[in-house]
Design brief:
The complex is a heterotrimer of chains A (232), B (254) and C (476). Chain A contains seven helices and twelve strands. Chain A is an alpha/beta fold and 232 residues long. A four-stranded parallel sheet of chain A has the order 1-12-7-4, sandwiched between helices. With 254 residues, chain B is of the alpha/beta class. Chain B folds into two domains: 116 residues, no CATH class; 114 residues, Rossmann fold, CATH 3.40.50.11810. The radius of gyration of chain B is 18 Å and the shape is globular. In chain C, strand 11 and strand 12 form a beta hairpin. The chains are: A alpha/beta (232), B alpha/beta (254), C alpha/beta (476). Chains in contact: A-C, B-C. The interface between B and C is large, with 72 and 73 residues. Strand 9 of chain A pairs antiparallel with strand 9 of chain C.
């Protein structure tokens, strides 16, 4: 144990004495059994409202959202989006069978699976996500073999493919999903809640999109209205 | 000595405050009138001095405690202590109890008197149950919410209710009525450039309303704002809210 | 911490007559509070969440040792390393050593107030490293060698023209030969230049908005996404943060996520809310190879168990700056400290010294608006008053003021002398007053009174004191 560490903990202990109370043993149990905190109504929408709330919020954050009946139609939807954006018909995918097995070429799209930084500039990436957060409209992604964090940050355009039943209520639900998603590597290194395109207002308070991250974020939502979200 | 109120429930000790006493005596008489009109018997203890706020805010806790002890000596035998100033009332009500530890002999008396101390206008509305005054004055005013009264004592609607009952009086709200005017006790002379700019901004908002007069509940703020307006050659008058409610605002104070 | 707060008055005076600065301050003083109000009022539970946030932070500080220990254990389980630093020297040395071990040359940073407090950049640059800030506002002020104007918007005192000039000078070596004026194009230029830096960086240094004890995660919150790039692209990720940033659990974190952006900018959420733990896992597609957290004390443990302990609740939202009539008159740079506004007036004496920072807690009218908006309900004015008490105890209060207060206290104990003095003062004022438009005013006062009459007249009464008139029988 380092001198610095000892010194710091000694001072914390001394302060406890000054305060007239020692650290409570309950503190440790708080970590084991976290007491629930106040969750605002917006963080626990009714299951049938979650999808609409998510879409509303995502749009407020500057995302565009498109419905898609099934995985098979995703490449078509991507192609249509890129035409609308006047962007090239090419996408970069992560190493994820669920996406790479789709009919990209048939939809007229060229596909690459590079994750090296240079190849991502100016391009469009398509990735899956682990959850949609209805409370804020953010999309939750976790680093893994199938999700390189840089793939969601460096391209100009990022397209999320999200299933309606992956839409959760609020932050509490996202933590549950993130914990459940952990494989034998433990909690993922990165858990990003991506709320729309990257932006800054650092010059004269003027909002500009595409500060360092994607300029546009598009969400392809798979499943129809009937597939009401079930809380995770 | 024990701090016991009288049994009548109607005896008030009026704490004038230094600025009213020295710079705006008429406010003291206006307070007397308002409280007597409301049916109270008002005494003015002759040896009262300062609430100690300048010392307290300068970090001189010991002197603040001395002032508090002096205050208790003068004001312990009333049903209520009424103060025509939000900041001085807050000093007594909110801060005096913090100046003494639980185990100190004066603590009980301090807490008791603090609990019975009120700012003037909120006393009239919240304790005396007054919702109108008899004054009449066909004029327009704008109201500045002095910070201590607003944030420490939650005084906001009460002066507006009573001003609204003055016949012929039009209340024109200014933008940023709740923004500090820049008085802040010694702050205004220790940081004159900043204070001067703050009162300039306040003056701008007052002038935009085109009200005949600016009204507030604290003489410190009043002198600050009035002084800035006068320096600019503006004709806007300036009154303490007690002066308007008591009908004393039909001539200049000085 | 090095500060120049003794220059507050001169800086403030210059700031007041700087029209452009005042335009920047309008954004913080008028627009941000409106945005905060709009978003806060849309969330019915906002006030209750503030109470929860305060309570969680109190719980945190009462058990800081326990939570830090737990955090350390979780971080190490995930393959990260914790380093403890008592002082800025220790912290800077640790970071330098970590960079050395990585054979680093190029370092990118995302916004961290703590690293500015430590003057880490200067230390690393002095040792030969290339250090670039990636938050656009921080990047701009780094290029200009300025201190931040505001904790959230460090460069908002500048015009697009000034930013354009700065970029034109600095980006020549990146092959940018054209001067760009348009704001969108300026952001684009920064994006291109900084992207090269992101890719060539050996080390990414970030701060942390929160540390979650339960899971060993750090939380990084931005609108630009630059912190995420800094935490992902370089092979070494170093986090530098204060020990007070730990919160017990993820459920606790949720409370803060709901009030931070609303308080800071009126957003319901920041655009990137990320949690990181440890280096890349074996099968991760990308990520840093090492993850080091430097936990910095630098005066924070000295605040524990004292009347300024509550300041350690601070979540760096900047709401108090926007609410403060003094800050919105003089701007952040007037304070001569990394931390400005009401929170700076409490932090700076704690992290530097009472004597060097004395101007800051005194430059307040105690209007209380800061306390009203603080998301974790820090009683800021009382803590500024605490610093004034420390100043008084140490006889640092200017002697004239101390003498005057002493006299006042003495008069307070001698009511008949108090009465005489106040009457004499009244007479004195009448003597130096003049009548203008039927009103009696003093236009020039001596000594400390000059501060008053420099911009105001003083209305002087034509009658004796209230108490003496009452004594003489007057009742109306």
């Amino acid at each position: 144990m380092s001198d610095a560490r000892n010194a710091i903990f000694a001072k914390i202990k001394a302060a406890d004495a000054k305060r007239g109370k020692a650290a409570a043993p309950e503190a440790k149990s708080r970590l084991e059994t976290p007491p629930p905190q106040l969750v605002p109504a917006i963080g626990k929408p009714a299951p049938e409202e979650a999808r609409d709330l998510f879409i509303t919020k995502a749009i407020e954050l500057g995302c565009t959202v498109a419905d898609c009946p099934s995985f098979e139609e995703v490449p078509e939807k991507v192609s249509a989006y890129l035409i609308e954006q006047e962007s090239p018909q090419q996408v970069i995918l992560p190493v994820d069978e669920e996406l790479s097995s789709l009919g990209w070429l048939a939809a007229g799209l060229s596909v690459s699976a590079q994750t090296g930084s240079d190849a991502l500039d100016g391009n469009t990436s398509v990735t899956r996500a682990i959850a949609g957060v209805a409370e804020t409209g953010a999309v939750a992604v976790a680093s893994s073999s199938k999700y390189p964090v840089s793939l969601g940050l460096l391209p100009d355009r990022h397209i999320f493919v999200l299933k309606v039943d992956e839409i959760t209520g609020g932050y509490e639900d996202v933590w549950k999903v993130a914990r459940a998603a952990k494989d034998n590597q433990g909690m993922s290194r990165a858990l990003n809640l991506v709320g729309g395109p990257s932006r800054t207002a650092d010059i004269e308070a003027t909002l500009v999109m595409g500060a360092h991250g994607p300029r546009t974020v598009h969400i392809i939502l798979i499943g129809d209205d009937q597939e009401a979200q079930k809380p995770a | 000595m024990t701090a016991q109120p009288t049994t009548s429930g109607h005896r008030i000790g009026l704490f004038a405050t230094c600025l009213v006493n020295t710079m705006r005596p008429r406010v003291g008489f206006a307070a007397l009138k308002l409280l007597e009109d409301a049916g109270y018997e008002v005494a003015v203890p002759g040896d009262q001095t300062c609430c100690g706020q300048p010392n307290y805010n300068s970090g001189d806790q010991e002197s603040a405690r001395d002032f508090a002890r002096g205050f208790i000596q003068q004001f312990s035998n009333f049903d209520y202590v009424v103060v025509p100033s939000g900041s001085c009332a807050a000093m007594v009500k909110v801060h005096y109890p913090k100046l003494f530890e639980e185990d100190e002999p004066e603590k009980a008396d301090i807490d008791a008197v603090a609990a019975r101390t009120h700012e003037l206008v909120s006393f009239l509305t919240d304790v005396a149950g007054i919702d109108r005054v008899e004054a009449a004055h066909a004029t327009s005013v704008t109201y500045h919410d002095a910070c201590s009264g607003l944030r420490e004592l939650k005084i906001k609607q009460q002066p507006r209710t009573l001003l609204g009952s003055v016949e012929g009086l039009e209340l024109k709200e200014m933008e940023d009525a709740e923004v500090c005017c820049g008085f802040g006790g010694l702050f205004c002379v220790k940081y004159p450039d900043v204070s001067g700019e703050m009162v300039r901004k306040k003056s701008e908002e007052i002038l935009k309303t085109e009200a005949d007069a600016i009204v507030t509940g604290d003489v410190g703020c009043l002198l600050n704002i009035e002084g800035a307006l006068t320096r600019r050659g503006e004709r806007t008058r300036a009154f303490h809210v007690a002066e308007v409610l008591a009908g004393f605002d039909t001539e200049d104070a000085s | 911490m090095h500060i120049t707060s003794e220059k507050f008055q001169e800086n403030a005076k210059a700031a007041i007559s700087d029209e452009q600065l005042q335009t920047g301050l309008f954004i913080f003083g008028k627009i941000f509070p409106l945005l905060r109000e709009a978003t806060a009022s849309k969330l019915p539970e906002f006030e209750a969440l503030r109470d929860s946030a305060r309570d969680i932070k109190i719980e945190n500080l009462n058990n800081l040792g326990t939570y830090l220990e737990a955090f350390e254990a979780r971080v190490e389980e995930a393959g990260g390393r914790i380093h403890w630093a008592r002082t800025s020297e220790e912290a800077n040395t640790i970071v330098e050593r970590l960079c050395e071990e990585a054979n680093a040359k190029n370092i990118i940073k995302s916004k961290s107030m703590v690293t500015e407090e430590l003057e880490l950049n200067d230390h690393l640059i002095g040792k030969g490293y290339n250090v670039v800030e990636t938050d656009l506002g921080e990047y701009i002020i780094q290029l200009r060698n300025e201190k931040p104007f505001h904790i959230v918007g460090p460069a908002l005192h500048l015009t697009a023209g000034q930013v354009s000039d700065t970029f034109y000078e600095a980006h020549k070596e990146h092959g940018r030969t054209e001067k760009v004026e348009d704001k969108v194009k300026l952001v684009e230029e920064a994006r291109i230049v900084l992207r090269e830096r992101f890719k060539n960086a050996d080390v990414g240094i970030t701060g942390a908005n929160f540390l979650v004890a339960e899971t060993g995660q750090i939380v990084l919150i931005t609108n630009e996404g630059n912190a995420d790039l800094s935490a992902t692209l370089p092979k070494r990720h170093i986090v530098v943060t204060g020990i007070e940033k730990v919160v017990p659990t993820l459920d606790d974190l949720s409370v803060f996520l709901r009030i931070l952006a609303r308080s800071a900018t009126g957003q319901e959420t920041s655009n990137y809310v990320s949690l990181y733990s440890g280096p890349r896992r074996a099968r991760d597609a990308d990520g840093p190879e090492s993850f080091d957290i430097v936990l910095v004390d630098n005066g924070r443990t000295d605040m524990l168990g004292t009347p300024v302990e509550e300041m350690l609740r601070c979540i760096r939202c900047g709401a108090c700056l926007n609410a403060c009539p003094v800050f919105t008159t003089v701007g952040g740079q007037s304070y001569g400290s990394v931390y400005s506004g009401p929170m700076g007036a409490v932090w700076t004496p704690a992290l530097a010294s009472v004597s060097s920072a004395a101007k800051l807690p005194n430059a307040s009218s105690f209007c209380g608006k800061c306390e009203e908006v603080c998301p974790v309900r820090i009683p800021l004015p009382s803590m500024m008053r605490h610093w004034r008490e420390k100043e008084f105890e140490s006889h640092l209060t200017p002697s004239g003021q101390r003498w005057g207060l002493g006299l006042w206290a003495w008069l307070g104990k001698h009511p008949s002398l108090y009465s005489a003095a106040t009457n004499i003062a009244g007479v004195g004022l009448r003597l130096i007053s003049k009548t203008r438009r039927g009103r009696r005013i003093a236009t020039s006062l001596p000594f400390i009174g000059q501060g008053w009459t420099q911009s105001r007249d003083l209305a002087v009464p034509s009658e004796p004191t209230f108490l003496s008139q009452y004594k003489d029988g007057r009742r109306r």
